[in-house]
Design goal:
The protein is α/β, with parallel strands linked by helices. It has a single domain (4-288), classed as TIM Barrel (Alpha-Beta Barrel). The protein contains ten helices and ten strands. The protein has helices spanning 52-65, 89-102, 113-122, 136-143, 159-171, 199-206, 215-219, 222-234, 261-280, 285-288; strands at residues 28-30, 33-35, 41-45, 69-71, 105-109, 125-128, 149-152, 177-181, 211-213, 239-243. The strands form two sheets. An eight-stranded parallel β-sheet has the order 9-8-7-6-5-4-3-10. Strands 1-2 form a two-stranded antiparallel sheet. Helix 1 runs parallel beside helix 2 (89-102), helix 4 packs across helix 5 (159-171) and helix 8 (222-234) runs parallel beside helix 9 (261-280). Bound molecules: phosphoenolpyruvate (PEP) and manganese (II) ion. Residues 47, 217, 243, 253-254 line the site of manganese (II) ion.
Amino acid sequence: MSNPDYVNDSGNPFKLVGSDSIPGRLAVDVFGVLIGGPELAFIGGPCGVESKDQVFAVARYIADSGVKLFRAGAFKPRTSPYSFQGLGPEGLALLSAVKQEFDLGIVTEAVDLDTFSDVEQVADLIQIGARNMQNFALLRRAGHCDKPILLKRGQGATLEEWLLAAEYILSEGNPRVILCERGIRTWSNYARNTFDVSVIPAAKVLTHLPVIADPSHAAGRKELVIPCALAGVAAGADGLLVETHCQPSSALSDGQQALLPNEFLMLVNHAFKIKKCLQSINANIELCF
Ligand code: PEP
Ligand code: MN
């Protein structure tokens, strides 16, 4: 791991994201929600912005439940060029309307340099998706913005590659990065990806950054989402990002992994209980080692 060209004085290749680079852990304030603080943070919403009715229906449910952060992509990186690519600027306008109407913080993805500034104006937390985890120009651009960045792990990325991708953002001047484990490609093909539970405590040991879990893209099947989410919380995740849709069967992307809003709320309640349990046994990662 340690190429002498890029280690710090203590031999750590993670010069800026490393756990020895600041005292304690970083907590990132996103629209009043502290991610990486003592409480779990939740981000819910559909995969993509499809229409006003669709985002408003989910947002209403989320806001009523007390969750403060809403996710949905206006720009969708899709495997096939023929799949729904997102509504683009129109989608961003609908996200602004969600924010205004429901007082929710917006989490949405930036996919390229051309549209980064537009996303930056609307988002409270900018997602860099798995497919762009090593898009170094995009990472550098994210390093120049004053919004926090949610950096998903690439489908085939090692822990070191993921953390060095975060290092790109910090090295350009933006310290507010949240890591997100969303499953990796393995030979196991029942679930969409393999949820790498162990990478959550590993990323927390090696860095000072908050780490959240995305069980939706890890599982790819709704019946696996809640168990994976709870495993992520038990492993020390600081929060969860979960896809939620009022009519999953007609979703334009990722409907098969979307929870109904009431299922999302059930998950939130279960997750709180797991977190309480961890707190009651004082199971923080430092004590586990
Ligand atoms: C998403 O969040 O909808 C998404 C495309 O995620 P990922 O980059 O993890 O596939
Ligand atoms: Mn999705």
